[in-house]
Each structure stands twice: as C-alpha cells, then as structure tokens.
Design a protein that fits this description.
27% strand; binds zinc ion; alpha/beta; six-stranded mixed barrel; 6 strands
Length: 199
C-alpha cells in the first residue's frame, strides 16, 4: 500500500563524501582521490557519541572541491571532543563515536546559544553521502612491474589522544575502539582507482 520510504537520518539532503583520517603522521595536503591540492572548509560536524550524546563540532576540514571530499583528522577530532566533554560530561570520554554528517551553520550557531534536543538537531543535519576509509602505501622503490595490489599498506598506528587516555583504566578492556562504529546503511561505491588483479 504505502510506498516504503527510504529511512535516512537527517532531514536535509546528504552532502559530501567523508573520510576520517586515522593517521596522525599523514595530513593529506593532496586529495587521495585526484591528487590535487586540498583546500579547507570549516563546518559543524555532527558527531554521535555513545550512548546518546550528539554534538556539533565546528571544525576546519580538508576539502577537495573536485571530489566533493571532506577529510577530518581523527586525532584532532578526539582532542577537541575530549576538551569539550571534560566540561560537558566527562563520563562519555573514550566512548565510541561516529562522525555522521554536517549541520547547517545557522542551526549550529543557534545551538551554541541554547541547547537543542536530538530531533531538532536532526532537522538541520546533512548526513554524509558516502563514508570512505583511507590507507596509505608508503613511498619507496618498488619493481616497475609489481602488481599494484601487492604494494605494502601501512596500517595506522593506534592513536594516543586525550579521548582515549582520559577514558580511564576501566576502559582498557579489549574491544575498545576496535573499529569505527558501523555507519547506518550507506552504499559504498567502488573506489575510483580500481586495483588490478584478484581481490
Ligand atoms: Zn580530489
């Protein structure tokens, strides 16, 4: 009878492809997609923190206009969150979190003046169109005929941010920060630069 509506968080159209950069030592001054120089764009990032603590964090992202790609550095985000929640609610520091989208500037400014409930925040949320991960292949000399899929990948080192350190000893149990929490159903497009050879 009724058409099934696509369930989506946020009332506004999705925007941006997003990468949370897990490396402290790589800053992506060039776009990992097209290798052009990245610009900057300051936006209120909408971050969900477990259990139910959404927050909008005004943050200067790297931005590639050609790929419509935003990159936020995970270590910076975690330091900002730790500083913010040291004031707001230290009990959530170290919890899992998910950067979900961006909030309209004006609504964000409003929310600085008066606290907003979650439903109201969602009215002003642009969820990300797509979320990707990034992995770095360290530079070096490799045989010219080497299969690109065989190039070594440098996995990011665990971050040592205040967000993790202030989490306290009870949070050192295994499984903490195993990986970013699941993003709600979003289709992942195949990467632009396909690797040759078998997966
Ligand atoms: Zn690009």
């Amino acid at each position: 009878m009724t058409k099934r509506k696509e369930r989506r968080l946020g009332k506004l159209p999705p925007q941006y492809t997003f990468i949370l950069n897990p490396y402290a030592e790589y800053r992506f001054t060039r776009c990992p997609g097209c290798e052009r120089k990245m610009r900057q764009r300051k936006l209120p990032l909408f971050i969900h923190i477990d259990p139910m603590k959404p927050v909008a964090l005004n943050y200067t992202c790297r931005y590639c206009p050609d790929c419509d790609l935003l990159i936020a550095h995970q270590d910076e985000i975690e330091e900002l969150l730790a500083a913010l929640f040291a004031e707001l609610d230290p009990s959530v520091i170290g919890n899992d979190y998910l950067v979900m989208g961006t909030m309209e500037h004006q609504a964000w400014r409003e929310s600085m003046k008066r606290p907003m409930g979650i439903p109201e925040m969602l009215e002003h949320l642009h969820i990300f169109k797509e979320v990707r991960t990034v992995r770095v292949q360290p530079g070096g000399w490799y045989p010219a005929d080497m299969d690109p899929s065989k190039l070594p990948i440098q996995e990011p080192a665990p971050l040592n941010t205040s967000w993790r350190k202030l989490a306290g000893p009870s949070d050192n149990r295994p499984g903490r920060f195993p990986k970013p929490a699941r993003f709600p159903k979003l289709k992942r497009k195949p990467r632009k630069r396909r690797r040759k050879g078998k997966e």
